[in-house]
Each structure stands twice: as structure tokens, then as C-alpha cells.
Amino acid sequence: MSNRLPFSEALLSTLGTPIESKLLDSSPRSRVWWVQPAHGEPVIVKQITDTGDATADADARFARELAGLRLAGRAVGPAVAPAVLATDPAARVVVLEYVEDLGETADWMPAYAESLARLHSLTGPADAGALPVASGPTAADAESFLALAGALDVPVPPSVPGELGALLDRLDPTPHHALLHGDPCPGNDRRTADGIRFVDFERASLGNGLVELAFFRIGFPTCWCALSVTAAPLAEVEDIYRSTWRGLTGTDVPGDLADACAGWLIQGDALVERAHRGTADQLARVPVEDFEWGYVTARERLVHRLGVVAGMTRDHDHLHGLGHLSSALADRLLARWPRLRPLPTPDARPWY
Prior knowledge:
This protein is α+β, with helices and mostly antiparallel strands.
């Protein structure tokens, strides 16, 4: 794969000749450069690449990223994403404003929660079709979760299959139109003097913002950098998110956060990085092998999620049985593998 800067004649005429460029670290799904044009400020050039998938997939990812960035560009006041400066759709290239990151800070979550709520609030029913509808847990995920309990010899309360079926209905994203980032992980953000700006919108979609607010509780389930946020910091970020949403929309955040967390719990694909999702029943692997993603293991991620859901649903009107099952599963995992570690806390972000 060539690492040559993909500047077409059209981009050259718009931005000028680059006098310096540097290839940056990125996922296998894209190539990203920092570029200094002959005149003006530095820019970021991102090219969506084929990864062995059909070309149509790369085209769809480019269209999704561009649509997400343009919708995010509606923000009034501090931006929540870099501005789109130019595009070359034929080469799947987007040129973005360069956003300098102020770097590590221990107190990063409040601004993160505020920007997340601002991002989510930018779209509504009139935007239906502008992005794909968010994906979520399926009946197959629910079946896999119940099978995990069987494999670990943990009895399933009689109410749980029905609870999971009703959960899937409540998590249907089609009535919701919040602008979801798709992968709002630490590292996909840039800290600026005006707040957080998000980058990497390849998985942007429309759905319920609680699915991403749940990241703070459930351990950032699409991220290699799994984290445990508890007690006062958790209450603060959720209050900031809800008050920001209410101030911008005039409404309360719709839905139930416990439902959103339970939805992440039963998705085995949330135990592995994107390249491995959809390739196997990941929950079925847990009783026979522990597999790492980042600096924690699948069982450690799962124990954390089980504990969160157990705590949130123990007295829940619609998920009472799931709460008891989650608690029993967490106990069984810790009894069988007592060396499992708790997820690290986000006092400082070690990946900087």
C-alpha cells in the first residue's frame, strides 16, 4: 500500500502545494497525514482505504465519515469535530482542519461528557436517512448470553429470556435520531481550550445517545482502553451530559441507561476489536479461553460489565432477573479465575 500523499489536482488547487507532510498512526482502515501547505495553517488529510473488503465497504465508510463530520459541523459555539476543508470522493480523501491536542489531563471526563451531549443533540427526525441507523444487540446476542450462563453452570432465572426479548424491543434505535459518533473512545478526541472535539467518524450513525453515555459505566466497550468510572466522577459526567442535552433540546434524555448498559453486556462483539467482530461467537470463547484486547482481557471486561448491570438492575422493573443472573455470572467468573483484575480507573490516560 502506497504511503504517498494522495493530493489530486483539485486538492492542490484548493489547498496549495504541501511543503511538509508526516504520516500519522491510524487504524488499518485509513491513512492519515499531517500536512503543511505552502500557505496557511496545517491540515489533516485522511484517506479511507481498502482492507481486503469489497471496495463498496470502503466507499460506504468514506460516505459515513463525511456525513458524520458535516452533521457535526452544525455545532453552534465551540466545535465538536474538525471542520471539513476539502474532499476528493474518487480517492476517498477528506481534508480536515488540524486540531492541536492540549494533551493529557486527569480531569478529562466532564468536558468529554459535555461535548458528547452537544454532538448527540445536533440531529433530529428530519435527518433520518442522512446516516445509517445505529446497530445494537440482536436475538443472537441474547441467545449467546444465555448459552454462556449454561456453559458456566449458572442457573438462568425463568424471567430472563422474556426480559431480554423486551430489552431488544426497547433498544430499537429507529425512533431515535441523535448523532452518534460510533466509537467515542479516549483517543478519538482532541482536547482544546474550547472543549473536546471528536475525530474518526467512520462508524457514525443515528440512534439513542444513551448508547454512548453508557460508555462511562460499562467500561468503554468499543475501545481497547477499557476503563472503570465509579462514584462521584460517574455521577458528575452523567449529570453534565443530561443537563447539556436538556439545555440544548428542551427535553430530558429519552430511554433508560440501564437498558443501554444491558445491551452492551450481551454483545460478545464488544469484547474484541473491530477487525474480529462478526467472525465468531465471542461469548462462547470466554469459558474456554481468555483473550486480550489492549491491556485487559475479555473476562476482565465481562466481569466489569456484569457488575455494572447487576448493580443497575437488581431492583429494576423490567430487568430484575437479569440483575440476579449478572451477579451470579460475575461471582462464577471470579471464583473460577480469581486472578482477574478490575479495570483501571481513568485518573490519568496512560495511552498518551
